[in-house]
Design a protein that fits this description.
With 252 residues, the chain is of the alpha/beta class. The protein is built from 8 helices and 15 strands. Helix 1 links the parallel strand 1 and strand 2. Helix 2 packs parallel to helix 3.
């Protein structure tokens, strides 16, 4: 006879009393979840999450003191890392939410069915069949290999598979992802993306650029013997000396 796993400890963070009440009822109706704390502003949420270390958090984005996004950023390094489900009335933060490794993003008002789908996503089985539900909820970790990136274009949010990314270029504020004949901008620095990209396919050719070698058409040296890379979209990227040497050494 199998034993039912312990319910997942949950904290909900929302400055609206009615929203907290609605979420409280939804959590209470699911015997796989156990509400262990509530916060009504960002500062309180940060303190509560550090103290309780729940395994699942329903996090409103627009809150006093600190936004939900700011709370999650300041939680960096928390162990164990909770599954985060953002809740908000506005969709403009969806890309940033997923960049912060949110498991899901609920647009208010959401239905009982949509809430249930988010919980199922948190508890869904992953590669390790022996993992507990609580451990499975931690699958979205900052150090996990990157499989896709969610980007925004003309009011829509859609995923781009890593294999579709041609190159990435950064400035002081954004990273431009070239894919599908367009460039998409995300607020994640190259330093965070680089270790999660497949090393056999992606190479950092400059401090501000990473290329997918599958999309390099040709390379030729410039006057300083640094390689100019012609990409399939017609753009050119200059590899620094170290990257140029690595590319030359890899040539057969």
């Amino acid at each position: 006879m199998s034993l039912r796993p312990d319910p997942l400890p949950v904290v909900l963070c929302d400055d609206e009393p009615l929203a907290r009440e609605a979420l409280r009822d939804l959590i209470a109706a699911d015997d796989r979840l156990l509400l262990v704390g509530e916060a009504a502003d960002g500062a309180q949420a940060l303190k509560l999450l550090r103290a309780l270390k729940p395994r699942l958090v329903f996090m409103d984005i627009q809150m006093p003191e600190l936004t939900g996004l700011e709370v999650v950023r300041q939680l960096a390094g928390l162990q164990p890392w909770p599954a985060i489900v953002f809740t908000t009335a506005y969709d403009q933060h969806a890309v940033t939410a997923f960049e912060l490794h949110a498991v899901d993003y609920l647009l208010k008002p959401f239905s009982r069915e949509r809430f249930g789908a988010a919980v199922e996503r948190v508890l869904a089985p992953h590669a390790d069949p022996s993992a507990t539900a609580a451990e499975q909820a931690l699958a979205s970790r900052a150090d996990a290999p990157l499989e896709r990136v969610l980007v925004r274009d003309r009011g829509q949010i859609f995923p781009i598979a890593v294999a579709e990314i041609e190159y990435l270029k950064s400035d002081s504020k954004y990273t431009a992802i070239a894919a599908r004949g367009s460039q998409f901008y995300v607020r994640v620095p190259l330093a965070e993306l680089e270790p999660r990209l497949p090393k056999a396919r992606f190479l950092r050719v400059h401090r501000n650029a990473i290329v997918n070698l599958d999309f390099v058409v040709s390379m030729k040296p410039d006057e300083q013997s640094q390689l100019e890379l012609l990409m399939k979209d017609g753009s050119t990227l200059l590899a620094n000396r170290d990257a140029s040497k690595a590319l030359r050494d890899a040539a057969i």
